[in-house]
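cron nightly-structures :: item 1 of 1
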Amino acid sequence: YDLGSRQWSSLPDMPFTSRWCSSVFLDGSLYVAGGCTYTQLRNGMHMRLPVSSMAVLDLREPRWRNLTSLQHYSSTIAVMDGLLFASGGTNEHFRYDAKHDGREVSLFDPRNGCWLP
């Protein structure tokens, strides 16, 4: 959105499909991660599937680039001190278990494009 002209402009489509994804803006780039997608079953019902994909849109180009996927499905991301924090999330079945109990926090370093231990 351009505040001066009060006009919206289109950007390239994301490289993955997701609803209710999380996004943050950092250093001229938009980071998008997680969320879910739907698939239609043979009986006509829809099934919600978690997404662990993460991508960045450099708004100067503009061009999307896929990043290393989230360590948890459907996580929420936030930014602080140049790092992305991914918190919460579930396993691939939208369930909490011993490994994915919703309390996990992971750090992603955008400068190096990797998750920190």
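cron nightly-structures :: done
The first strand starts at residue 22 and ends at 26.
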